Amino acid sequence: MLNVEALSKSYGQTRALRDVTFQVTAGQVFGFLGPNGAGKTTAMNIIAGLMDFDSGSVTIDGMDLRRNRSGLRGVVGYLPESPAFYGYMTAREYLLFIGDVSGLAPAANRARADELLDTVGLAEAARRRIGGYSRGMKQRLGMAAAIYNRPRLLLLDEPTSALDPEGRLDVITLIARMRDAGMTVFLSTHILADVERVCDSVAIIKDGAVVAADSMTRLRERYIQPVVDVVFDRMLESVPAQITSAVHVDRVSLDGDRMSVFMRDLEPGKRELLHALADLDADVASYSLRQPSLEDIFVRLVNSR
Amino acid sequence: MSTFAAYLKKERMESSRQSKYLVLGAFFGFFALSTPIMLRLMPSIIESQMPSFPKELMEFDAVYSVQNYIRNIYQLGNMAVAFVLMGVLADERLQGKLVYPVSQGASMAGVVGAKLVHYGVAVSAIVFASTMLNYYYSVVLFPGNNPGIVAAAQSAGLLAAYFATRVVLVAFASAMFTKPLAAGLVALVVSYVEPIFTSLPRWKSFVAYSLIDIAGNSLGTGSGMGMGTGTMPGAVAGVGVGDGAVGGASAGAMMAVGRTGNEVNGWVLAAALIVEVAVIALVTVWRMRNVEIAPGAGGQ
Predict the structure, then answer these.
(1) Distances in Å between the alpha carbon of A187 and those of A53, A70, B88?
(2) SS3 A78
């Protein structure tokens, strides 16, 4: 659906994007992660056709973005991080305006506006002027405007950042529904829990370059180091050294009576660790395998290079 | 076409809800009403301050009154149009308001075209109506030397056409500059410098300011400040010196029977302005198509 190849963009001397490459498969929710200033919004603006780029290529649905810029408008829906509206319009008027621009027939336009206002939970506020909306309400309206003409590729830049937990859950549910309906969603967010909940694949960008891009499953396999947390009733001085010397243990970190054992290889490592603990006759209070999270991958990749 | 129609509707709504019609209407209307009233009161004011001032120098007529309005509204109206419309495109870019429409398939030609047509028609209508209002009050307050409603309507039409060209100029500046104030000031400077070219015989027929000259001249010969005929050298409006004029306030207002009107070929001027407006509009569309419209991408 979306193929980004060696994409580069500079602002003066600052290189915002450096040979960014990734692919998004049709019907997926693709997470785009990175710290502030990593180049996420620049990449999204380029893919949305709102900003030019220096080199590389962007192909959407088989069409080159540079050659088919006008043809691709309407194929791509975009929710910017801070959506801007005409504050003197009501939400309904704004959506009808978007429908007019898209060339929808009046009856279909009215029906679509009412349907989406209901979907994003703004039906009751539909006749209030947007100027008086909260940031969260504007974000919901932005979502409705972005999907108004049923784009095949939807770009969402921090869609949940201004929402309360309930609103976040609504948006994540909506994203999942859009994927189920066949839409491809490109999601940029800082909220890693949202990505874990809904994304099929992820790219992590740092300083304008992609440091990892793969499916969630393969990322977990490749980047998450298995960790076993052992809590002792009484820590023996000899325990850390003994455990560290085990073949499948990479390193050990201590926090009071809690020891975190980072494994090179989980399955043989677990067995080796249990044997070692038994041999040491340590007073073990608890033994647990830490659930790997995307945050672990993110922190590791962003901090490692 | 859907973009043009959608934006035309949107601009009407915006102008109505943000009181742009009201501001422009009140501005032009105020000067249309106040100019003849001030002219009517001027003899009494001068007499009370300077009893020995010759009364024959203060005999104004309707032609002079309307010419006085045209002269004033050229200067003040340009400011109103520039400052009300300076953000017409710059604001949309700067605040990222074009993101949704453009990503939904809006054409930039439709966006720019709708804005030019809407504000061109709106400003022209307001200018035409206010000039006719000024004509009416001028005839009521100064019964002598009525230029006639046809001549007045002709002048009003020329003045309206001039301000339509200003709308295009301001929109062009608004597309070129990120800051609305910079756009407004540049458009204003161009409008105020333009009259210099009317002093160059070869350029007269290509400059929009000639419409102002012709609008004043087509009313006939005005009488005021003791002058038989008022002339306004086409050079720089605002510093024009009326023959025998007394006092700076009335000096530049003498526009009747100026030489400008006789030397400008109306057809050439009309054709030149149509071409100029079309070229500026096309460049504006080109600029908006190529400029980055993403939020915060205003660095160009």
Answers:
(1) 20, 23, 32
(2) strand
Dihedral sign, Cα of residue A86, residue A90, residue A91, residue A92: negative
Element (H, E) at B29: helix B20-49
Q: pTM here? A: 0.79
pLDDT tens digit string along B131-186?
999 999 999 998 878 888 999 999 999 999 999 999 999 999 999 998 999 999 99
Q: What sign does the dihedral A41-A47-A49-A52 (CA atoms) show?
A: positive
Successive 10-residue mean pLDDT values, chain A, 305 residues: 89 86 90 85 87 88 81 81 91 95 92 93 92 88 89 89 79 86 87 82 87 78 78 78 79 83 82 84 83 71 66
Residue A90: both structure tokens together: 């009501």
Q: Which residues of B touch A83 (CB under 8 A)?
A: 96, 99-100
Please determine, for the modelled complex, whether the ipTM score is greater than 0.90.
no
Distance CA B78, CA B169 (A): 11
Contact call for residues B230 and B224 (beta carbons, < 8 A)? yes
Residue A229 is encoded by which pair of tokens?
A: 């947390």
CA distance A89 to A269: 63
Q: Is A145 helix (H, G, I), strand (E, B) or coil?
A: helix
Q: Does A76 touch chain B (CB under 8 A)?
A: yes
Which of residues 211 through 250 in chain B touch A, CB cutoff 8 A?
A: none
Residues in chain A: 305
A52:B6 CB<8 A = no
Separation in Å, CA of B13 to nearest CA in chain A: 8
Location of structure tokens 């962003």: A302
